[in-house]
Amino acid sequence: MEKILAVNSIGKFFKDKKVLDQISFDVHKGEIMAILGPNGAGKSTTIRNIMGIMYPDEGSISFHGRKEVPRNKIGYLPEERGLYKNVKVMDILLYLADLKDYPLKKAKERALDYLEKFDLKGKENVSVEELSKGMGQKVQFIASILHEPEMLILDEPFSGLDPVSQELFKEEIRNLANQGTAILLSSHQMNLVEEMADRLFMIHKGKKVIYGTMDEVKEQYANFKCTIKGVNDRSLLDDLPNVQRVEQNEGGTTSVLYLDNEVHPSAWLKNLPEGVNIQELIFDRITLHEIFIQIATGKNLAVEAGDLDA
Ligand SMILES: Nc1ncnc2c1ncn2[C@@H]1O[C@H](COP(=O)(O)OP(=O)(O)OP(=O)(O)O)[C@@H](O)[C@H]1O
């Protein structure tokens, strides 16, 4: 996979507080790479360093192996939303494309196509301040991709979108990656990240905790869990082998058994005692959402064991 962006061991201080420490990752052509982490972890600071809004105190960032990151090759949807208020939609789109040296005629054609795609047909001459929040976000997203950037950085692109708009964004982001755009996606919506990202980088308190493909991450950090429907006595489930913890709903009709990572699913299932009441059983892995919560709250055993390098 062709490497577009390389973040090499960057560190950043705010006064004497180190908010980024040895952060390294790459973003490849045609992939969706997610950057995740709890509030205050350092995601936006990392992105601002890539965008040249600030500079790292340690390490370096390169684009195609060169130290200069060319802004006109990058599209950026910042976390802070907002465009100039008093300007018409088409005017602002063309102005921003022009700032990136993109040909005007092509920009106009693409803008019309995208406005139609995002259900904003006919809004070209509407002033930005008359748009709803979601419509404004769509226009800002269009502005970030109009100039056909090689790399697209999206900071919380889905926040505040209704489900239909969310689908449109998802589809377009996937399309862009398929066409070769390198995408760095920061989002707190774990279900979407799990569905969309090819690889992920998780940062916690300014440091790397996870870096790898979605499959590697799942294999390494997503322990198995077994969900059993049927009334069961909790103590019976607690005593089963390889069970780390059991969660039961009120009435004990559904039980979720969180298992050790090294469990062998078929052997474990074969050894379930006959006394366990099973109306339905699902055996799968914990979700990215659960991995995230375990890491953010210090409960992930793989991380505690220092097994961090993916
Ligand atoms: N301009 C600044 N001056 C001082 N400290 C800052 C500044 N910007 C960010 N920080 C601190 O740096 C750390 C990382 O913040 P950052 O905004 O990068 O986190 P984040 O992962 O993007 O969080 P969120 O999910 O809440 O957006 C935090 O401790 C924050 O308080």
Automatic annotation (TrEMBL):
PROSITE patterns: ABC_TRANSPORTER_2. One of its GO terms (molecular function) is ATP binding. Residues 5-230 form the ABC transporter domain. The keyword Transport applies. Keywords: ATP-binding, Nucleotide-binding, Transport. Belongs to the ABC transporter superfamily. PANTHER family: ABC TRANSPORTER ATP-BINDING PROTEIN, ABC TRANSPORTER ATP-BINDING PROTEIN NATA. This is ATP-binding cassette domain-containing protein.
